[in-house]
Amino acid sequence: MTDSRTSSSDSSEFSGSLTVPPPNGVQSRISADGRHLLSPEVSRHWRDVFWLILFVLHLVLVGLALGVFGFNRFKMKDRLNIDKYTMGFLENQSGLTEDYWPMYALAAGLGTVLGCIWLSLLGSHAIGIMKIAVHILTTYLAVISVLCFWGKQFVWGVAFAIGAALQFLYVVSVIDRLPFTMLVLQRAVKMVWNLREVMGVTCVFMLVMLLWLALWSFGVAGVVALSFGDTGRWWLLVVFSVSLFWTGAVLCNIVNVIVSGMVFLVLIHGGRDAESMPSKPLLNSLRYALTKSFGSICYGSLFTAAIRTLRWEIRGIRSKIGNNECLLCLVDFLFHLVETLVRFFNKYAYVQIAVYGKNFNHSARDAWELFQSTGVEALVAYDCSGAVLLMGTIFGGLIVGTCSGVWTRIHHPNTVIMVGSTAMLMGMILVGLAMVVIESAVTSIYICYAEDPLLIHRWDAEFFNQMSETLHQRLQHRSARAREVLRRFDSQTQQTLSA
After folding, report:
1. Across 117-121, 222-226, 340-344, which has the greatest mean pLDDT?
2. Most exposed of 181, 196, 318, 343 (fewest Cβ within 10 Å)?
3. How far, CA to CA in Å, does 231 sit from each of 235, 238, 486?
């Protein structure tokens, strides 16, 4: 986090005028590099190749396993004689792949429809859609918790109840930040809605995800129909769900890199049709994302989502603790640990990957140091756009999981939780592919604001003034907090010495 001296100096810099230009060195570096960004003439190197190989190998092995499990129960029980290896020590049950595959087909179709609806509605009703996602998610989680208790699924009932409570606490803790968050999201939607080509790329990757989900759901339907008993099937579902999560995150972050590169170029060159724009920027960005930067995307996709979610939850809990010193020390330790991880795994790395072709850790560290050195980290910490978009993604996934679960309960009541939970994951990934377009624009806006605020001013002067005013307020707030901590420390030190 930015210390008091940095915050104080940054606060004084913005206190005089909200339109102070950046140092000449920063501005000239961007103008010099800007015309060459994503240009095919610029030499790039392969990054994080180990993770690229690991991801491809994982896809091959998981794909083979999915095919085997799905085919083993397709139109014939135990076609590949897998049951003979489990006979005698695992529970046997009868079932076929095609008994459960239609439930997953419903999940894939509904997830795709919801993703497309999100994309279309965000263009015209962005703020309303986001508010609905924020406020209705807590209620929806609570309702599902009650239904789980009613169906005697106590573990899942407790899990959804805890989720509803955490969601409620988080929204309450950040309620004052939502107006600024909605402002940022509105401008991000405005940016991507004028780049129709990136919307087309998103649709293409949703189709790619659907193709992989066809195989994944075929294999998972075969797993649900297996005679491995509940414990064995759950372990297999966990393994395949982790694989799907990584695959979905990789596809989302490929879109992230492509959109980030396009938004960054548009802001630097002052428009999509500017003469200084590189030729075929979208194709070049796509080519880099699928080749030399693909390893970095695979690497970052393993960790960024989990660490980011943990960071949001700890921030919300930390702001509501009060004067419980023991609990505050524990949460502060976790907070600083997560903040250290964020330095090496943050979503802003994908902008640096898209624009400069760095490896993931280098990109994440450079982005975070850029924010801290300019004071923009205070603005990034105040913004909740990523959390709001995640809420929309979870809400979409819950709708998909509920619909598939209800259908499964009618025909196969013993496997409702298995099918419903895995269908929810499918829905979250498909809706997340639509949401990542907006999140990419948000991250690019912050990176551009940190590198050269005048880029934002040239694009939208009113938005620039609102961002600068909010940053000024946050830096003043941090300076006041730092002075208060120093006063408490001095007071405690004097009391200790006098005693």
Report:
1. 222-226
2. 196
3. 6, 11, 54
Distance linking the first and last C-alpha atoms of the chain: 33
Take residue 475 and report the two structure tokens written for it.
């830096």
3-state secondary structure (DSSP) of residue 488: helix
Tell me, rounded to whole angstroms, the distance of Cα 182 from its chain centroid. 17
User: What secondary structure, in 3-state letters, does the chain show?
Assistant: CCCHHHHHHHHHHHHHCCCCCCCHHHHHHHHHHHCCCCCCCCCCCCCCHHHHHHHHHHHHHHHHHHHHHHHHCCCCCCCCCCHHHCCCCCCCCCCCHHHHHHHHHHHHHHHHHHHHHHHHHHHHHHHHHHHHHHHHHHHHHHHHHHHHHHCCCHHHHHHHHHHHHHHHHHHHHCHHHHHHHHHHHHHHHHHHHCCHHHHHHHHHHHHHHHHHHHHHHHHHHHHHCCCCHHHHHHHHHHHHHHHHHHHHHHHHHHHHHHHHHHHHHHHHHCCCCCCCCCCCHHHHHHHHHHCCCHHHHHHHHCCHHHHHHHHHHHHHHHCCCCCCHHHHHHHHHHHHHHHHHHHHCCCCHHHHHHHHCCCHHHHHHHHHHHHHHHCCHHHHHHCCHHHHHHHHHHHHHHHHHHHHHHHHHHHCHHHHHHHHHHHHHHHHHHHHHHHHHHHHHHHHHHHHHHHCHHHHHHHCHHHHHHHHHHHHHHHHHHHHHHHHHHHHHHHHHHHHHHC
Residue type present at position 295: G
User: ∠379-383-385 over CA atoms, to 5°?
Assistant: 145
Q: For the segment 44-54, what is each residue's pLDDT rounded down to a tens digit?
A: 788 889 999 99
Query: For the residues 473-485, what does the mean pLDDT come to?
Result: 79
Domain ranges within the chain, ordered by starting residue = 33-72+103-127+175-303+345-489
Tokens standing for residue 238: 């966990």
Helix orientation angle between 24-34 and 229-269, rounded to the nearest 10 degrees: 100
Using an 8 Å Cβ cutoff, are 95 and 225 in contact? yes
How many angstroms separate the most distant Cα atoms in the chain?
Answer: 84
Tell how far CA 21 is from the center of its chain: 32
How many angstroms separate the CA atoms of 106 and 221, rounded? 13
pLDDT at 15 over 50: no
The tokens describing 401, both together, are 């999981």
Looking at residue 416, what is its pLDDT?
A: 87
